[in-house]
Amino acid sequence: MKLETLAGVEALIMKSIWTLEKEGKPITVYDIIEYLKEHYEKEYHRNTVRTYLTKLEKKGFVSMEWEGRYSYIILQIDEKTYQKYQIEKMQEFWFEGSWKEFVCTLTESISGEESEKIRGMIDDLDD
Questions:
Q1: What is the pLDDT of residue 10?
Q2: pTM above 0.85, yes or no
């Protein structure tokens, strides 16, 4: 499956949907509007969010299901799948495909304690 990159507001809306989905209840446009306001201090009108949801639907990230007057957002691509796609894309572009360079750069930006935990995880892979 070839994924597309999420741009700006699309990424905020998808992050909102992925988080709301963990609550286990149906997600509406109004849930997304409220989440964006509370967590990102962004205030979007219903029509604006609907426009972005239409774009996300065309990109294959969500689908819409209607029940009466309400539409519910159904995830088509989970957050882990998109995270993996983004990391692989970053590794390819910025590190010319070198996982070693990618990891070295990543470890430079984390604390000593976290670095030790990661070393332990890598050592466990050898088992």
A1: 97
A2: no
